[in-house]
UniProtKB/TrEMBL annotation:
Keywords: Endonuclease, Hydrolase, Nuclease. InterPro entries: YicC-like_C (IPR013551), YicC-like_N (IPR013527), YicC/YloC-like (IPR005229). Residues 179-294 form the Endoribonuclease YicC-like C-terminal domain. PANTHER family: UPF0701 PROTEIN YICC. The keyword Hydrolase applies. It comes from Thalassospira povalilytica. Its cofactor is a divalent metal cation. This is YicC family protein. Belongs to the YicC/YloC family.
Length: 294
């Protein structure tokens, strides 16, 4: 499976039994799956099937589904409302005799709403079911198109996400190699500080060594480095497996950010601080792109 974006578009056309139709599908980012369906031309009965078909293919995204239906001009007949037409003619003749304005022609009166009425052709259930099947088949094609579009966008996202993960790894490696992050450097610095305080005679030696041990533990970033490396490995595994991984990646970004914050709080020199700040920037960039992942 590959990484899929939540952004996509599809359009398909079809025709059968005197009807023509167009499906349009649009998808944008969303926290969950929100399907909005607009059907016209008397096809509202298909809404449940449309929602079911979309929900089976997509897990996240705000998806709009629109069906526009046009009936062929020769697919039905018309009836004249003679009673209304006669009334309009009588009114027209009355005004024609009392006014200098033209009363118009029969063709003009035919354009009045209600004079010319379309007669819907009678059809049996088998004909309607066959047309419904054709419309739904066209929807399936549109869903396939949008899935392909989302997958295409997902390939671009995958490359960007992997690039951000690579940058995180490089920054973590720099932090790990900082002189101030090495255990021997931490011990040497604390030893020097303890000796200076002992020479000043301000603290009890035993209590001072306890505090020094506590400070040494707080200054050690090896646990944060190890967890960051584990998160990097987890992110790459998710991207390799693909599928609906957007929520998992978003949670992983939160874990990345937590370790970066801890790293910054433990930083005791400018080089390590810079690594922590750069890490937070890259994680924000990663999380921004993750919001597009299904």
């Amino acid at each position: 499976m590959t990484v899929s974006s939540m952004t996509g578009f599809a359009r398909t056309d079809g025709a059968a039994e005197g009807f023509g139709w167009t499906w349009e599908l649009r998808s944008v980012n969303g926290k969950g799956l929100d399907v909005r369906v607009r059907l016209n031309g008397g096809f509202e009965r298909l809404e449940a099937k449309v929602r079911d078909a979309v929900s089976k293919r997509f897990k996240r995204g705000n998806i709009g589904v629109t069906l526009n239906v046009v009936r062929a001009s020769d697919s039905g007949s018309y009836a004249v409302n003679r009673e209304l037409l006669a009334e309009l003619i009588a009114i027209a003749e009355e005004f024609d005799n009392t006014s200098s304005l033209s009363a118009g022609t029969i063709a003009d009166l035919m354009n009045v709403r209600g004079v010319l009425e379309a007669i819907e052709p009678q059809e049996d259930e088998a004909t309607r079911d066959a047309r419904d099947d054709a419309v739904l088949s066209s929807l399936a094609d549109a869903i396939d198109q949008m899935a392909a579009h989302r997958a295409e966008e997902g390939e671009k996202l995958d490359a960007m996400l992997r690039g951000h993960v690579d940058n995180i790894e490089a920054t973590v490696t720099r932090a790990e190699n900082c002189a101030a992050a090495r255990g021997d450097a931490i011990r040497e610095r604390l030893k020097r500080q303890v000796e200076e305080l002992l020479d000043a005679g301000k603290f009890e030696p035993e209590r001072l060594h306890q505090e020094a041990a506590l400070l040494a533990t707080k200054a050690d970033i090896r646990e944060e480095i190890d967890r960051l490396k584990a998160h990097i490995s987890a992110a790459r595994d998710m991207l390799t497996k693909g599928g609906s991984i957007g929520r998992k990646l978003d949670f992983l970004c939160q874990e990345f950010n937590r370790e970066a914050n801890t790293l910054c709080s433990k930083a005791n020199d400018i080089e390590l601080t810079n690594c922590g700040m750069e890490l937070k920037v890259i994680i924000d960039q990663l999380r921004e792109q993750v919001q597009n992942v299904e």
